Amino acid sequence: MAGGAVLGLGGLLAACGSSGGSGGSAGAGGSGGSGGSAPGGGSAPDQKSVKQGGDDYATVIEKMKGFGTDAAPGVYPRTVRHAMGETVIPARPTRVVVLDTGELDNVVSLGIQPVGVVHADASTSLPSYLRDKAGSPAAVGTINSLNLEAIAALKPDLILGSRLRAQDQYAQLSKIAPTVFSLRPGYPWKQNFLLNASTFGLEAEAGAQLDAYRAAATAIGAGLGDKRPTITPLRFMPGRTRLYAELSFIGTVLTDVPLPQPAIEQVKELAVEVGPEQIDKADADWIFYGVYGSPSSTNQDTVLGGALWKTLGAVKSGQARPVSDETWFLGLGVMAANAVLADLKGFVAPGS
User: Fold this and answer.
1) Nearest to residue 61, comparing CAs of 182, 212, 206?
2) pLDDT reading at 16 higher than 50
3) SS3 for 101-129, per residue?
């Protein structure tokens, strides 16, 4: 791809981690359910294909159409269909453990404070944008390495995660508590939100929040009129630099406004990787860049201090800006999406 490497979900694993022992894949689950078939028809997507791109990667949303429950709000027990089959939830959960940043965002947005959380490998604390609403959940490992003993000690009545992240730990997790898994984090974040909400009987509340998000995105686009600047979401990570593409969380937010991305990013993948000598491929009307973990562990300083960076149009016009990695790239939920919209409105469409 014009000097850049195109990545599927495998790139997201390096960014956010994956469950320990899974070798960079992960994620299947459902208390009492089997992982042999995907609700809604057809076989479960091949794990490698969902992880690395290809047909299953691009059709995850389609394969999630059968997920959720037929139970009326407030009715328990309820059966929830998800990436690992079906899980029976006997009563409305009150002690929830979340295994990724998207699930954390989802439950907090529904007014639920989890009892246990995992952290991204580059962090040891709650995301700052959720800290005042998430309570004081116990740490139960990292996205790359779950602490099953710590999870069990919390006596949860629900565990939320994804097939991609923790497939290898599903059987053990489902012995601890009813476990509901999405197929994967990232670009199907809206479907994941509704799935998570179905375990609490809060689908209507989740739907209302998504409607409000969509209205806010549409308002930004309407304020721009026909003048839609191109946007590059750029992320510095240990060992790699990424231009996030259409099938990423941030890619979906840009699509919802809509705000176009440069041609190199208009691919049905997670991201395109570029080296420091290819950073000119990031050029757009606006460049918003984040950094995963410590900047010193990435090539951010080298790139931003380099001669090539200074030639970019966005840099020359003062429209290359740092943004929060927590919301733009790690948030993966509606609260993070709203924070991104606020950033976009402030920078790109202040009058909207």
Assistant:
1) 182
2) no
3) HHHHHHHHHCCCCCCEEEECCCCCCCCCC
Q: How far apart are CA 210 and CA 229, in angstroms?
A: 24
Residue with token string 């990724």: 100
DSSP secondary structure, 209-221, as one string: HHHHHHHHHHHHH
**Residues belonging to the chain:** 352
Q: pLDDT tens digit string along 240-262?
A: 999 999 999 999 999 999 999 99
Report strand pairing: 240-244 vs 271-273: antiparallel
Query: What does 311-331 look like in DSSP terms, one character per residue?
Result: TSHHHHTT-EEE--HHHHTS-
pLDDT at 20: 36
In sequence order, the 6+-apart residues with CB closer than 8 A to the CB of 305 are none
Determine phi and psi for 92, rounding to 5 degrees.
-60, 125
- For 148, the 3-state DSSP assignment is helix
Contacts 24+ apart (CB under 8 A), 303-311: 303/236, 303/241, 303/276, 303/279, 306/276, 306/279, 308/276, 308/277, 308/279, 308/280, 309/279, 311/280
Between the CA atoms of 53, 55, 58 and 63, what dihedral angle is there, to the nearest 10 degrees? -120
- 176 Cβ contact list (under 8 Å, min separation 6): 148, 151, 152, 156, 159
Look up the pTM and report it.
Answer: 0.86
Contact between residue 340 and residue 145 where contact means Cβ atoms under 8 Å apart: no
Q: Judge whether 301 and 295 are in contact, CB under 8 Å.
A: yes
Task: Return the ∠ at Cα 129 (arms to 128 and 134), rounded to 5°.
Answer: 85
Distance CA 7, CA 5 (A): 6
Cα 132 to Cα 39, 126, 141, distances in angstroms: 36, 10, 21
Structure tokens at 77: 């027990």
Contact 44, 173 (CB under 8 A): no
Nearest of 84, 234, 226 to residue 160 by alpha carbon: 84
